[in-house]
UniProtKB/TrEMBL annotation:
SUPFAM superfamilies: alpha/beta-Hydrolases, Ribosomal protein L1. One of its GO terms (cellular component) is ribonucleoprotein complex. It comes from Eruca vesicaria subsp. sativa. Belongs to the universal ribosomal protein uL1 family. InterPro entries: AB_hydrolase_fold, eL8/uL1-like, Ribosomal_uL1-like, Ribosomal_uL1/biogenesis, Ribosomal_uL1_3-a/b-sand, Ribosomal_uL1_CS. Interacts with the GTPase NUG2. GO terms for molecular function: structural constituent of ribosome. Pfam families: Ribosomal_L1. This is Ribosomal protein. Keywords: Ribonucleoprotein, Ribosomal protein.
């Protein structure tokens, strides 16, 4: 275990917002070793470590804890986040450079976060599943289908969204092959309240097995806004193998936007894992046609 404490140094004139970017630095003491964490982690520290206290007179923010293990976890969390930030920025830059230097594509390449886990037994441990809405839409051309009542089908047509009514669903006749084909055709589904209740009876368990059970849309919501929300949402789901991949951006986005999406995706993934970072074996970023770039 690492015995120690952390001190946040900042300018006393910045007391209203001592954690803003560019103010001060974090010093982590591990025994006699002094490690300085650059100020780019200010936002991370203030959000993730809410028990930080600071003193106006000394101009120091002290983070102390009696348990050595907590100090160790804090130090590791800060160091890992710093490593990740640098690696992610380099990977994004590398993907963009590779795209510019190779033959122009007729499509915009998607950026995927590829995840390898460790110390997890899919047979014994709970298989986690969770979704998070990213700040920027990673796949603008994501195919979505509205399983709607008459009003929603009409709204879908107006915004150019694929749709199916109850009669069209009945024609599938619960045929497993046809339902599977439907599930493969679209990335996600939306459904009206009156229709979503009938999905199991009309289609069987096919969409649910594919991990694409429809998201409910009420008539009080904007259908277009719901579509954009769905496009911005990514899902992490552990199945039988300790690896997975999710779309976190595309090469048509700004570097800052890609970074924000990756950062939120990784932080959310880690929050789902039973031992957080200790369950992460590796992380890669890869564009559709480019080589993988390891970021952790």
């Amino acid at each position: 275990m690492i015995a120690g404490f952390a001190t946040w140094e900042f300018d006393p004139t910045e007391l209203e917002n001592p954690f803003r970017e560019g103010v001060g630095s974090v010093h982590m003491w591990q025994g006699t070793e002094d490690r300085i964490i650059p100020s780019e982690l200010n936002q991370y520290v203030s959000k993730k470590l809410p028990w930080i206290k600071y003193h106006e007179l000394s101009g120091y923010g002290h983070l102390l804890h009696a348990e050595e293990q907590i100090c160790e976890d804090i130090i590791k969390a800060l160091l890992v986040d710093k490593l990740q930030s640098e690696a992610v920025r380099e990977a994004i830059s590398s993907m963009i450079t590779h795209c510019k230097e190779t033959k122009p594509r007729k499509f915009t390449e998607t950026i995927e976060l590829q995840i390898g886990l460790k110390n997890y037994d899919p047979q014994k441990d709970k298989r986690f599943s969770g979704s998070v809405k990213l700040p920027h839409i990673p796949r603008p051309k994501m195919k979505i289908c509205m399983l709607g009542d008459a009003q929603h089908v009409e709204e879908a047509e107006k915004i150019g969204l694929d749709s199916m009514d109850v009669e069209a669903l009945k024609k599938l006749n619960k045929n497993k092959k046809l339902v599977k084909k439907l599930a493969k055709k679209f990335h996600a589904f939306l459904a009206s309240e009156s229709v979503i209740k009938q999905i199991p009876r009309l289609l069987g368990p096919g969409l649910n097995k594919a991990g694409k059970f429809p998201t409910l849309v009420s008539h009080q919501e904007s259908l277009e806004a719901k579509v954009n929300e769905t496009k911005a949402t990514v899902k992490f789901q552990l199945k039988k193998v300790l690896c997975m991949g999710v779309a976190v951006g595309n090469l048509g986005m700004e570097e800052k936007q890609i970074f924000q999406n990756v950062q939120m995706s990784v932080n959310f993934l880690v929050s789902l894992l039973k031992k957080n970072w200790q369950n992460v074996r590796c992380l890669y970023l890869k564009s559709t046609m480019g080589p993988p770039n390891r970021v952790f």
